[in-house]
Amino acid sequence: MRKSGLSRRKFVATAAAATAVGSAGFVPKKVFAQKKVAVKFNLSWLPEGANVYSYAAKQFWTKAGLDVTIEKGTGSIAAAQGIGQGQYEFGIPAAPNCIQQAMKGLPLVNIGCANYDTTMGVIMLPDSPIKEPKDLKGKKVGSTFTSGEYAFLPAFLKNAGLSMGDIQSIALDGKVREVALLEKQTDAVTAYVASALPKIVAGGVQPRVFLFSKYGLPFYAHSLTTTTAYLAKERGVCEAVAQGLCEGIKFALLKPDETIELMFKEVPEMKLASTAKEQIQIGMGVWAANYVAKEATEHGVGYADPAAYEKMTDLVFATGAPGEKRPDPTTLYTNDFVGKVKLTDAEWKAVKAASAKYALG
Distances in Å between the alpha carbon of 68 and those of 42, 59, 172, 349? Predict the structure, then answer.
């Protein structure tokens, strides 16, 4: 703690003050007063509606004395590896990918949940004869084989009473996957729905989806991640980053339009695309609909369910390579820094109503 400029006495006082505010949320005191602490934060993907709260969080990080540089990413696996290898102090890769990398030996730990569903799933056109997962039998299902959801397609099919041999699995480049569906080159595609949906809706189509999470495969998505070594060395910084992100999530849920403007301010080139705001709104709406989950509503923003980590670990380990070790789920996350930022029942009700049209599955 002393290395981060935060004495034990100040840390205890700050923690007590944060607890005292209760449902009012995190009050970002400038805990690093002498010198701002500079950290790099990886989005794991490009700026979009599913990670827009990161830009809302920046105001709270600044007030807490943190100088956070937000960097775009190239996927959750790359983000998890970058954090584990020390390129970034923090990031928000998807929880399953963190577990995958922990199985390979990277010392990763999640310190806050920013998205409760990866939205991995199967997407069909609205007039498709595929009404239930079992209707996929004999159909052409397009996938980008390097995309994260594809590894769990066999498990989804198994839970639906099918196998990979029951479908025609078609390899598609990620750049043309949505186009292939819209042009009916495939009967369905697999994807992270939150990312694929804005592109499909921009084509004038409201698709139907089967979310893996509704069929026995619950996976948390974006999770605030650091390394076990950094957590042990800079616990005060970790708490400030986690609580600032939780406050950013609350801000984004309650003030979506203001949050989008904060993103445009940080990433002005995004405004050049005519459909940028619409696509961000769609992705943000899907994220908000998923965030009205019992973990957050009952325990506070950022809370992770221990049972969910246990199940995720088992599911990811089942798809692992020979020789990989199953990590202890209790070492993969901590709820020490979350749960202080809360929304009232009325606020959760308003978020649910506003995002209802984006709810999936």
Answer: 10, 10, 37, 32
